[in-house]
Amino acid sequence: MPNNLEITKTAIDDFKEIQRYMLLAKEEHAEKTYAELKKKYISLKAILNVAGVNLSQLDEIKE
Q: Which pLDDT does position 14 carry in this prediction?
């Protein structure tokens, strides 16, 4: 079973990946794709916030 550090690292990695995909979707005007990615982004952001991760260093998306 993964420990809290492993879970947090995975969430951070997923968060960064979703951000990259959101930026690409925005550039390509893929509105439906962007909307679906944003749902995952918000979930990961909430998890990381609860874990106490400083999101200002990770957050590239300006909502």
A: 93
